Amino acid sequence: MLLEFFPPYLKEKDGICVLNHDDPWISKLSSDLKKRSLLVSTKITESEFENDDFFFVTDKKFTESGSTCIFHTPREKIQLFVPLVGEFNLMNAIQAITILYKLNFSLKDLSKLMQSFPGAPGRMEKIQIDDNDVSRSLPTVIVDYAHTPDGLKKVLQSIKKLCEGKLITVFGCGGDRDRSKRPLMGSIAEELSDQLFITSDNPRSEEPQKIVNDILMGIKKREKITIEIDRFKAINESIKFANKKDIVLIAGKGHEDYQILNDKVINFDDRKIAYKLLKEKNKSQ
Questions:
Q1: Is the pLDDT of residue 7 over 60?
Q2: What is the C-alpha to C-alpha distance for residues 185 and 173, in angstroms, rounded to an integer?
Q3: What is the C-alpha separation between 147 and 138, in angstroms, rounded?
């Protein structure tokens, strides 16, 4: 049983679990749980809704600024704006809202609070500059912590649905970590991106070029690949390359404000660097 791997408090009969109905493992988990389960879905249709423990959304729309939908509870529904990019973030948000709703928070208040939710730093974080005269020709830049094959795939799939131009990805893999994921991430990034800038993440004690070579083992065609070991230069080149309808994803480090190079730790924040480079690009146009 799945519960063998869960802590004791999950086996208690009291309390409520909020589960992602869209995950294929949930049917097994919910049957094993002794406590009441509330199911949440971003995919079910209203005609399928016949369960008092079901929470779901309809009329979904995804943009670079976030998601809009109608959120349905067993007793009421409300228009919802989630200022986070991607369907997986919509699922995270409605699971959190479901928990608070069951704790007797007002659905109207929750909807209002969600509109100004800033999101977790470095998780699908859109970089916006504060210049009064912002050029409309700037690309969209998103920084995300995705550093595993599954994480990178989900982020790229979400962004690709929104991208009207080219999807440009900047990423590397950490040193002294699982080498087997490197070609997998290379393959995923190549498949879902229009242009790739392969660079360093936190190389630690490994030679950066060796890490890049492992990533390249998953690449089939080199035409749309740029290799730039220096992460600052890779980000700079990607933003210079991008046009107004393009989206640049800078993946791997997210909220981290450092880079580990052998035995040195240097200041390095993808978000601050992208912000600085966007400002420079805006002024030069």
A1: no
A2: 8
A3: 26
What's the CA gap between 39 and 20, in Å, rounded?
A: 6
Q: Where are the domains of the chain?
A: 2-114, 125-284
Provide the residue count of the chain: 285
Ranges of beta strands (E only) in 192-254 are 195-198, 225-227, 247-251
Q: DSSP state, 2?
A: G
| DSSP strand pairing (264-267 vs 258-261) | antiparallel
* DSSP3 helix / strand / coil % (the chain, rounded to 5): 35, 25, 40
Is 3.90.550.10 the CATH number for 125-284?
no
- pTM passes above 0.85: yes
Neighbours of 224 (CB within 10 A): 14
Q: How far apart are CA 135 and CA 279, in angstroms?
A: 10
Kindly write down the DSSP assignment for every residue of 137-150, as one continuous string.
TPPEEEEE---SHH
Six-digit token string for 48 = 């399928």
- The residue whose two tokens read 């950066």 is 208
Q: Could you tell me the CA-to-CA distances from 76 to 49, 89, 101, 106, 284 in Å, in that order?
A: 13, 22, 11, 11, 51
> CB burial class (10 A; 0-12, 13-18, 19+) of residue 236?
buried
Class of domain 2-114: alpha beta
Q: Which helix (H) or strand (E) holds 190?
A: helix 181-192
**pLDDT tens-digit map of 243-261:** 999 999 999 999 999 999 9
Query: Residue 117 pLDDT more than 90?
Result: yes
Look at residue 169 in the predicted model and tell me its pLDDT. Answer: 98
Q: Dump pLDDT digits (tens) for 54-67.
A: 899 999 999 988 99
